[in-house]
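User: Structure tokens for both sequences below?

Assistant:
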Amino acid sequence: MDVFAPVRAYAVAESLALSDQHYVQMARYLELMREWNEKFNLTAITDPDQMVSKHVLDALTYLALWSNPPTSLIDVGAGAGIPGLILAMVWPETQITLVESIGKKCTFMRHVASELGLSNVTVINDRAESIGHHPDHREHYHLATARAVADLRTLVEYLLPLCQPNGVVYAPKGPHPDAEVAGAKVAMGRLGGRLRDIVPIVVAGLDGRSMVRIDKVKPTPAEFPRAPGVPSKRPL
């Protein structure tokens, strides 16, 4: 049985150009995740079918929302590398930065990038609040994203400072994020963002999803992001 059958069906439905090499890379990535998970707590999802749907297929939903790949992407709270490492495989020209505060997860992501030849990947062991003030990263990225990291009010303080002018935040959420989005409108405005839209994502094999897209319309004030821990304790 082909565990990647849902991915192949999605690729056909969305006209995504996934090669045999992509499937080889994705299979090896999941194999490495299972191996390392025996020593480190990388993921609670270990069933092969669930790993394909909730890791790989979920990450690939980004592709259908872009006519051309972004020039640069930062994935905050990258964990074991979803969606960043999957996107690095299918967007080889996109410079992808993975930010993670837990060192062992960074070690794993570097190992995967090295073994799979993902030369477009940089892994940083740090917090989003610190990276957001670093001159090499502040207002640098075309696309900033984070999966299952925080409520949207907190998330925009992590991500909008990293977006370049005319960049965009992609915040994957559940099927009904309207109340969460409404609660984050003030924070978006203070941080230089403006809601573009909420895109429903309906894919066979996935639970209900949506993508909240926020445009960076003006510079983020210099005082943001606030000190580590403050955005989550006192959201804007």
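Moving on to the next sequence.
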Amino acid sequence: MSRPRRLQVFAVEPDTVQLSWGALTPGPLTVRAIAGVDGEVVAEQDIESDGAPGVALLAGLAPDTDHVVHVGEHRLAARTPAPPPGRELYRFMTLSDMHLGLAHFGLRNTMRERDIEELHTLRCTRAALAEGKAWGAQHLVLKGDLVNHGTSDEYDLLGKVLAEAGLPTEAIPGNHEVKPHREIDHDEAFTRLGLTVPDEGLHTVDFPGLRLALVDSTMDGVNTPRLDHVIPHLGEAIDRRPALVLLHHHLLRLPVSTYWPPGVPSPLAGRFLRSVAAASPNVVVASGHTHRHRMRRVGPVVVTENGSPKDYPGTWTGYVVHEGGLRQVTRRVARPDAIGWTEHSRRAALGVWGKWSPGTLDQRCFTIPWAV
């Protein structure tokens, strides 16, 4: 068996491991998970590799356990996490940066598909929604850049995609919804689609065990974020509850952006995070915009960036609410005609994109117990 390309443990949950690869030797393979170095086989799956990129799910694993995963003759280590304390209360998924209507990717738009019936942006979004729903998502939250040019046709397409998914949906705009060349304002388009437009840039939604605070961080006609308009209202909105605060633009560590796209400068980001921390000791702040995967802590606040379904590695992110905490899992979109494109897009920026965007496993999948 030849050496596989980019074979890795991409996602972990208390009972599941997602493997992904760029290429495997064609032919039949057995994938199995063994608990401990010399333990018993706890999950096994026969796959037929066609040599193309793909994923495999191994389910029914024990939580908080070291596993050895065998893919043919190759071995990987995988540790399933412990779930947060208490009962599971709710599951939902998030997507951002779908860019419906976009036909290309890469520097100077060099990556483009030809002679296809469905653009990669559309089929990757559809696949992500179907896979998230199969995982058990009960709600969908969209974190901006849902469409690419702000045309009526793109919003019509978004409406069809959301109708197909059949999930209750919340959404906030990104910089692509407010570009000066747009055909339709996002608030009008959102209203037509039955999506709530944040009042004064902020609105809240309550799930069992968790409050969502959705922040519109956009400024009309420019790719410059704003947060000053919501900072005075965060205390009342979060109200000492466990919360997930969602916005489009990422929060920078420095006063200026050192990479594209521009984010929230650190002085403003710091004021925002201090207000969030004062509002509750149990808060996660999640953004999109960068199309990459990162996680860090700023004081008591967990700050995470989630990627896009349409470019490498091509993902959706799920959250599981427990009585005593929150769990994030980020999975690769598995549908063959989606992962084939996202694996190809790894080559963008002279191959740098494939190293920059995925982050590490513990930045994609993590558990946050609530402080008592």
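User: Anything stand out in the second?

Assistant: The mean pLDDT is 94.
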